[in-house]
Structure formats: structure tokens, C-alpha cells
Amino acid sequence: MSASVQQRPLAGQTALVTGAAQGIGRATAIALAEAGALVWINHLRQSDAAAALVADIEAAGGRARTVQADVASPMQVASLFEEVLAAGPLDILVNNAGVILEKPFVDTDEDDWAHVLGVDLGGVYRCCRHALRHMQTRQSGCIVNIASELGFVGRADYVAYCTAKAGVIGLTRSLAREFAPHIRINGVAPGPVDTPMVSLAHMSAEMVAKESDIPAGRLGRPEEIAAAVLFLVSPGASFFHGQMLGANGGAWMGS
Predict the structure, then answer these.
(1) 148 lies in a domain?
(2) Identified catalytic residue from 161, 162, 229, 230
(3) What is the tens place of the pLDDT at every residue in 3-50?
(4) pTM of the predicted model as reported, rounded to 2 decimal places
(5) What is the CATH number of the domain that holds 153?
(6) Contact yes or no for 148/189 (Cβ under 8 A)
(7) Is 158 designated active site?
(8) Which residue range(s) make up the domain with 185?
(9) How many structural domains does the chain have?
């Protein structure tokens, strides 16, 4: 294998990363672009951050485009895929867009529940459905869904988020069985990662402090999660179907 193929294993491929303007999504978009893919950067009302990311990728010799859409909206997701697919085939989908909610269960109302599940699980469902219709006709493609270790273990005051992420794990494994062997569908279940989501803007000081109380003794870095995604969409992961990689610093050691 030539050095160029080893360094750019995704050359000639097109990827879509949802929620890519910051955090794990941003790091993933950069990693995929460095591997040679043309990356579509989906965002919601973060035009400046998305444009800055495109500029960074292009300055490094990569290719990227932006597309705004709310993954909780069926109509906007349909428009998102119409725009992406009008430009050419889609080889890789990374479902990363998500929200978090810290709230006691008895205080979590219908709107809270609908919002969190609508983005964190419904968004994955919608994007997978559109992508798989396309990938099925081509009999090829890779999907990586970003879940969470909390989808395995649960957490008090985060019931909506944990439920949604548990759903992402089940959805990933079910789709992997349905669309194998030609389309590979896997996931990553990160532990606590140093992103805007893990901050006092979204979590109490107590919960933020607990995030680093894991065997690794620190928060993860977005680039570490991106590395797991890159592996799953690369040729080296050709025998991976329905797997959920636990890039979590030891926060969850189950299977």
C-alpha cells in the first residue's frame, strides 16, 4: 500500500457530520478531512463557527462545505440530504448532533422529553433513514452514531438524555444487522469529554466535578473521540458491524 493511501484512506469519499461546528463534531470533521474526505459540516445557527472550521480545513489542504439544519425537524433533515446528495454520493455519515438536560425526572415535562429525544434519538433516526436509502442503492457506506456511556449506566437527573442515548445504542445495533454486510453501522459511546456541553452552562458544578472522577482521572479530548470515529470508517475496521466503541476513560467497562 502506498504512503499516500495510508495517510489519506478516505480520499475520494464524502462525509456528513451533524453538529459539527464545535466539540466532538468539529474534531471529527477535521480528522475526516485530514484523511482525505470532503466533509459536509452540519450546524444549527452557528454559521460563523462552521465557516471558521471550513477555513481551517481548507488552510490545511482539505475540503469542506457547510449546511444548516435542525436534526429534530423532519423537513430540515430532508432538505439537508437533498442538498448534500445533489452534490454527489455520500459515503460516510456521523450522527453527532445532540443536546443534554440535567433535571429531576419528576420535573422533566413533555416539552423537555420531546426536545431531548427529538434531537438525540430522533435526529439519528432521521439522518440514518435518509442516508440508508441512498447507501442501499449503492450497496456501500459507513455510519457512526455518537452515543454515550450514560446510555449503558444511566444517571440520576439525566433520564431523558440517558434514555435517548440508550436508544441510539439499540438503533445502531439493529440497523447494523439489517444493512450488513455492504453497509457498516457502528457507534462510539464517549465518556466525559472536554466540550461546551460539559460546562456550567449545561450542568451543575457538582456534576461537572464528577465528570473527571473516572479511572483515567481526566476529561477526554474531542480529538480522542474523533480518532475512534476515524477508525470505524476506515478500511481497517472492515470487520466491525454493530459495535459501540467505549472511548470513555474507563467510566464504563461493560460490553
Answers:
(1) yes
(2) 161
(3) 445 679 999 999 999 999 999 999 999 999 999 999 999 999 999 999
(4) 0.93
(5) 3.40.50.720
(6) yes
(7) no
(8) 3-192+221-245
(9) 1
